[in-house]
Amino acid sequence: MKIAIDGPAGAGKSTIAKRLAKELQFVYVDTGAMYRALAIDFLRRGLDVKDEERIVAAANEDTVTLSYVNEEQQVFLNGENVTAHLRTEEVGNMASASSAYAGVRAKLTASQKKLAEETDVVMDGRDIGTAVLPDAEVKIYLTASTRTRAERRYKELMEKNGTAPELSVIEKDIAERDDRDMHREAAPLTQAADAVLVDSSTLTIEEVVERIREIIKEKTGL
Ligand code: DC
Q: Does a structural domain hold residue 36?
């Protein structure tokens, strides 16, 4: 069984996908973390984000694998656990830019398809329903307004660091990332024709999980 959850940054995909995976006892695969792992390598090598040839060559030398500790995904870059280093602005920006290259995508898409062949998955990302698992039994396109997503990010940063950029700055950053993810040539973020749209702007996490559980039940009986 394959459940695909796509949508823009900050829509709540990972929180929701993790909950669903736990309830269904499926494996949760956070594909954004795999792009972030490669981004760490590109940064360490000092590669210029515009240098597609060297970035793709580096991606083809790298190995990104996943394992699970207490149901938490751990990401390994060439055997090194890089999970603790994935969530910085610098890594996020490099992941966003380098994921536009078809050669980088081909590398990770292949391993994501393989993972889904081996086990039942809830997989989240940008192109899961359209490119990675076009035959997924359930496809969800989870979104929320840019303002809502900026507010969530602001709250998260305040809780974590006690400080955060102004809301308008965060909102602009989110809009720019959406633009990059939606307008790149290779597997852009878009709602698959057979995906169900869920707008989480005015819903709590529990309400979103409940709504998606209903959709899963309708489609699969699970
Ligand atoms: O979901 P995230 O912010 O961790 O993802 C980081 C970047 O990786 C994001 O800007 C877009 C890219 N990405 C992608 O192109 N395809 C995916 N399936 C997942 C992430």
A: yes
pTM score, two decimals? Answer: 0.96
The CATH number for 177's domain is 3.40.50.300
Which CB contacts under 8 angstroms, 24+ apart, belong to 48-54?
49/94, 49/97, 49/98, 52/101, 52/103
Atom of ligand 1 nearest to the CA of 112: 18
Q: Using a 6 Å cutoff on CB, does residue 112 contact ligand 1?
A: no
Q: What is the mean pLDDT of the chain?
A: 96
Ligand 1 within 6 A of 8 CB? no
Does a structural domain hold residue 205?
A: yes
Q: How many whole angstroms from 46 Cα to the centroid of ligand 1? A: 21
Name the residue at shortest CA distance from atom 18 of ligand 1. 125
Question: 146 near 178, Cβ under 8 Å?
Answer: yes
Q: How many domains does the chain have?
A: 1
Range of the domain at 121: 2-216
